[in-house]
Specification:
Layout: H1 35-45, E1 58-67, E2 86-95, E3 110-118, E4 121-128, H2 141-148, H3 159-167, H4 173-180, E5 194-195, E6 200-203, E7 209-218, H5 227-236, H6 240-250, E8 256-265, E9 291-300, H7 305-310, E10 323-324, H8 329-345, H9 430-438, H10 441-455, H11 460-473, H12 475-485
Antiparallel strand pairs: 1-2, 1-9, 2-3, 3-4, 5-7, 6-7, 6-10, 7-8, 8-9
Helix pairs in contact: 2-3, 3-11, 4-9, 10-12, 11-12
GO molecular function: catalase activity; heme binding; metal ion binding
EC number: 1.11.1.6
Family: Belongs to the catalase family.
């Protein structure tokens, strides 16, 4: 009998009747022995995995990264060596604070996460549409996100908590200014820039290390929405950014980004006037100019949103030989937190799913068991390699592996005493002020109106603390916020 001619259970057994439950008589109760009913209901109850705590609502697409500048002087990473080399990519865009059903046009940072399916494994750059962030230390991240979510009693968004937290953490000033400015509501995902945001490391065949920041510049230009435009769009089409991406790729208008890097020699970090590992800061382009290295094009939509976008498990810990981490405290925390979140959401073997397994190379490890063990990568089959009965190494049961010493990251010199350093960079205001002074008069007016509209919903002491921060960034900045709030200092 050919089961392909029948509806079957998950185990492949043909189903005789998919429309009527097994009952004790026509009007009687159902029987627990109706295993097909149980299977359907049990699977239905589990069709949704826990949504991401942040970046819950997103859009994904496949594409290609084409290298236009060889970086072998800086890194041994395969996808950055050889002009013209093409690497398959997957990009997930997202809002940050909203739930799965929230609108795309919210005032919120946008996630901009890029996966390179390289010949040496998956390399993920899990960034945002901003070059900075609100915090410099990951220990504050859970508290910060709690302020962006709903109040535990009222289940409503809570401006008091949000601004109270920011007023007590002036390191957020740069990112707050970005978020509340015209840059705070991208019109869609195609017409915005992306950034790796963190500082990462590169190392070359000579063992030299360089610090690097990644920039993705939209070739479609940058378009943002005003508050009024966003409010209308949220009511007309809550899925506006998702729809925009689907329509563009379906119509063959493949979005593209120019990929750039900033590169800093390792020794410069010791003397540079800005802490290069502080995520609340940017590296001035006058000191470390952008170097164009390639082009990212998105040209293929996923076939199954849940399997490929909802279950994609991007993580900054997905690094490859030639690309490493840095002492960036936020990055250090994310190296653990993101992969751990995926294990919780999806299961221990999430990397065996097609969207997560390496597409251009074979995985080979000793991890066995756990949920979804045995899931086959459609690109390379088994994700263990070698003898599946062996779960340890070294082992005489498996062939000797190639010497990988040439792939080892050069040592990083670490100085200082182990302690909890609270304020290693006192200047939280200069770059925020510089950004404010870049804005046109109209942009400043809209920035002030947006801040005042939200900050006015908080207590006076929070307003006073924030006003002091705005004034330290720029006296005019603070004066305008004070006037808009009607505060007497």
């Amino acid at each position: 009998m050919n089961n392909s001619n029948y509806l079957t259970s998950q185990s492949g057994a043909p189903i005789a009747d998919d429309q009527n439950s097994l009952s004790a008589g026509e009007r009687g109760p159902l029987l627990l022995q109706d295993w097909h009913l149980i299977e359907k209901l049990a699977h239905f109850n589990r069709e949704r995995i826990p949504e991401r705590i942040v970046h819950a609502k997103g859009t994904g697409a496949y594409g290609t990264f084409t290298l236009t500048k060889d970086l072998s002087d800086y890194t041994i990473a395969d996808h950055f060596n050889g002009v013209g080399k093409q690497t398959e990519t997957f990009v997930r865009f997202s809002t940050v604070g909203g739930e799965m059903g929230s609108a795309d046009a919210e005032r919120d940072p946008r996630g901009f996460a890029v996966r390179f399916y390289t010949a040496q494994g998956n390399h993920d750059i899990v960034g945002n549409n901003t070059p900075t962030f609100f915090l410099r230390d990951g220990i504050k991240f859970p508290d910060f996100i709690h302020t962006q979510k709903r109040h535990p009693q009222t289940n409503l968004k809570d401006p008091q908590a949000m601004w109270d937290f920011w007023s007590l953490n002036p390191e957020a000033m740069h990112q707050v200014t970005i978020l509340m400015s015209d840059r705070g509501i991208p019109a869609n995902y195609r017409q915005m820039h992306g950034y790796g945001s963190h500082t990462f490391s590169l190392w070359n065949a000579e063992g030299e290390r360089f610090w690097v920041k990644f920039h993705f510049k939209s070739q479609q230009g940058v378009v943002n929405l005003t508050n009024e435009q966003a409010d209308k769009l949220k009511g007309i089409d809550p899925d506006s950014s998702q729809r925009d991406m689907v329509v563009a790729i379906t119509d063959g208008n493949f979005p593209k980004w120019t990929v750039n890097v900033q590169i800093m020699p390792e020794a410069d970090a010791n003397t540079y006037h800005i802490n290069p590992f502080d995520l609340t800061k940017v590296w001035p382009h006058s000191d470390y100019p952008l170097i164009e290295i390639g082009e990212l094009e998105l040209n293929r939509l996923p076939q199954n949103y849940f399997a490929e976008v909802e279950q994609v498990a991007l993580a900054p810990s997905n690094l490859v030989p030639g690309v490493g981490a840095s002492p960036d405290k936020m990055l250090q925390a994310r190296l653990f937190a993101y992969a751990d979140a995926q294990r919780y959401r999806i299961g221990a073997n999430y990397n065996q799913l097609p969207v997560n397994c390496p597409h251009a190379t074979q995985a080979n490890h000793h991890q066995r068991g756990g949920a979804m063990a045995g899931t086959q990568c459609p690109y390379h089959g088994s994700q263990t390699g070698g003898d599946a009965s062996v779960n340890y190494g070294p082992s005489t049961a498996e062939p000797k592996l190639e010497d990988a010493s040439k792939l080892i990251e050069p040592p990083l010199r670490i100085d200082g005493e182990a302690a909890r350093y609270s304020r290693y960079d006192q200047d939280d205001f200069t770059q925020a002020g510089n950004l404010y002074r870049m804005f046109s008069e109209d942009e400043k007016q809209r920035l002030v109106a947006t801040i005042a509209g939200s900050l006015s919903q908080t207590s006076v002491d929070v307003q006073q603390r924030m006003l002091a921060h705005f004034s330290k960034a720029d006296a005019d900045y603070g004066q305008r916020i004070q006037s808009a709030l009607g505060l007497v200092v």
